[in-house]
Specification:
alpha/beta; 23 helices; 12 strands
Length: 625
């Protein structure tokens, strides 16, 4: 078989395995890197022999830096620190700087004393595992759904520390090769690479953003390819000026384009995200296939104990030091201590270092590569598979996040906003109707006069921090479109839309009832033909209450709005399963404002009370039944 046929087969099999692993991971709701590593190891020379990375020869050393630069650029482009408070950013920068230094020193000590590595190789290993894995952390956090504060810290740490850690590893490698342990040489090498990458990436990103604003004639698809070409051009230029500065260039280039808000940024992020997923899929399979199972066995218990110390001793120490004095709770700190999986940068740099050390005649290249991959395997499997359980036990999942963003200043939307606000919930509204917005402002509800499709306004309104998004405009089709857009772009914990259950797209929930007549209820509220009531589902008569309530809802006489449970106050979903202890807040259609038909309230518990409709000019006054 000729070389071209072998190369074609290698790429085809690698892509099929990588994308197949991504699909299977999404279906099984597992971190994709788990299946990518398994696919690479099982299909490599040590397994089934389907993937032979050595066919690439020097091509692997070309492919890896370009793909890693693309991955880090996508991370920088997606990183949003604009809404992070000073406390979060302070902890983040400490993790990247002080935390990295602690990991380097403590990791080297553990690798030397427990792993029995020579000091030079021990420091090289520690420099490689300083990085975390943004390509692992990002999907993992989205899958688990952790609080926004934790997501910002962990994703920011992964994106920012990757180039710093990779440059640190290169500097340490040069020290190993040149037998020069001078602190000045290390500091100078770090400073040169970081400064060069930051300047080239920053200037290049700013100039490109100016060009993209001026180049109105470019179609979106071509804009994306222009950005890709400039990215790789800047990385190459940076590498020519100072070796191994390209990764820093890629991250700063992405951060600069995000900061400059280039036209079509959302489409650009989606395009680069797809390329990043493809790069991750290919690289992980190739690098895992290149791993020798025998070298992993040779590490023995000492290698496993080294990684356990890194996970259970060094990482908690880093988090404790770097979050000292912050307002993070002990549960949040515990979650930060547990989640630090290593990823593609550690794997790729370790693979390249193994080749460099072997070519230089220095033993330990295969051992350090095996130890790094063992670190990746243990951190990814242990932390990736338990992250949801740990987050749930520590109560740091975003499903517990409060606050509601309401799209649509309709009578129903404004009424709901006041009910939520009066019960201590954070509420923000958005609408294009200036008159409706002005009414909401008079009712002291925070509101934005803008389209709910404006992603920048949604971010400014706090969509990434609020727990619920509700589309409640007058048009059910518009509600579906608005909710679908938010679901695709921001993935908030709860996405609801005022529409019938049959119209509800996959991934979101219909609000209130399965057959909602939003026009009718807006009219009822506008004419004050409703009353607000509360009902507690009691254990003794829950079956009777639920049947009676469901009958009134189906008849269109009652509209359930909010349900209060131990985990918090929530907007009612269509076909909600009522539970004993639920406190339901509902609307009762009352055509005669001052008379409550006895037929409608018979069967309701004695402690039910009904309040008059909330209007801007009056305060709700309870009336007994």
């Amino acid at each position: 078989m000729d070389s071209s046929t072998q190369l074609t087969g290698l790429f085809v099999i690698t892509v099929v395995l990588g994308i197949g692993a991504q699909v299977a991971a999404q279906w099984l709701r597992l971190p994709s890197i788990v299946l990518l590593l398994l696919a690479g190891i099982l299909c490599g020379p040590s397994g089934l022999g389907l993937v032979h990375p050595d066919i690439l020869g020097d091509g692997l050393e070309v492919l890896v830096p370009l793909c890693v630069a693309l991955i880090l650029f996508e991370g920088g482009l997606s990183l949003d620190l604009s809404r992070a408070d000073q406390d979060i950013t302070g902890s983040l920068w400490k993790l990247v700087t002080v935390g990295g230094l602690i990991t380097l020193v403590a990791g080297a000590m553990v690798a030397h004393w427990i792993g029995d590595f020579p000091w030079r190789i021990a420091f090289l290993y520690a420099s490689l595992v300083v990085v975390t894995g943004p390509t692992v952390v990002g999907p993992l956090l989205r899958q688990v759904g952790v609080e926004h504060k934790l997501a910002v810290i962990l994703e920011g740490e992964g994106v920012l520390i990757d180039p710093i850690g990779a440059i640190l590893a290169v500097v340490v490698l040069n020290v190993v090769l040149e037998q020069d342990l001078g602190v000045a040489a290390i500091a100078t090498g770090m400073a040169q690479r970081l400064a060069t990458g930051a300047v080239i990436g920053g200037v290049g990103g700013w100039l490109l953003s100016r060009f993209l604003r001026w180049a109105w004639f470019l179609e979106d698809e071509l804009r994306n390819l222009v950005v890709l070409a400039v990215l790789w051009g800047l990385v190459w230029l940076s590498q020519q000026m100072v070796s191994e500065s390209g990764l820093m260039t890629a991250v700063v280039f992405g951060l600069m384009l995000r900061w400059c808000e280039v036209p079509g940024e959302r489409l650009l992020r989606r395009f680069k995200g797809q390329l990043s997923t493809l790069s991750i899929s290919v690289l992980f399979v190739l690098l895992a296939a290149d791993l020798s199972i025998a070298s992993l066995r040779e590490l023995g218990g000492a290698g496993i104990l080294t990684v356990l110390c890194l996970m259970l001793v060094i990482r908690p120490l880093v988090v404790a030091v770097c979050t000292w004095g912050s307002d993070l709770s002990w549960q949040q700190k515990a979650f930060l201590s547990w989640i630090a999986p290593r990823g593609i940068v550690a794997a790729s740099v370790a693979s390249l270092f193994a080749i460099t050390l072997t070519n230089a005649g220095i033993s330990g290249g295969d051992a350090i590569k095996a130890q790094v991959f063992l670190t990746i395997l243990m951190t990814v499997f242990a932390q990736g598979l338990t992250a949801r359980w740990v987050a749930t036990k520590l109560n740091v999942r975003a499903q517990g996040a409060s606050g509601v963003l309401i799209a649509g200043c309709t009578p129903l939307g404004r009424l709901l906003a006041r009910l939520l606000r009066d019960r201590g919930e954070e509420v923000v509204m958005i609408d294009t109707d200036a008159e409706a917005v002005e009414i909401a402002r008079k009712e002291h509800v925070p509101v934005y006069l803008s389209s709910a499709l404006d992603l920048n306004i949604l971010q400014e309104a706090g969509i990434t921090q609020l727990g619920t998004y509700l589309a409640v405009t007058k048009n059910t089709e518009v509600n579906a479109v608005l909710a679908q857009r938010v679901l695709e772009e921001f993935h908030p914990p709860r996405v609801l839309a005022a529409l019938s259950l049959e119209e509800c797209p996959l991934g979101m929930s219909a609000a209130f009832t399965s057959q909602l007549s939003i026009k009718a209820w807006n009219q009822y509220i506008a004419t004050e033909a409703v009353r607000i009531g509360e009902l507690v589902i009691e254990e003794e008569q829950s079956h009777l209450q639920r049947d009676h309530l469901d009958a009134l809802i189906r008849s269109g006489k009652v509209l359930p709005l909010l349900v209060e449970r131990p985990e918090g106050l929530r907007i009612v979903r269509a076909n909600e399963e009522w539970q004993p202890g639920d406190r339901l807040i509902y609307l009762l259609h009352n055509p005669k404002p001052h008379t409550l038909p006895q037929a409608l309230i018979s069967g309701w518990p004695v402690n039910t009370h009904v309040e008059s409709v909330l209007v801007p000019s009056e305060t709700p006054s309870p009336q007994g039944t």
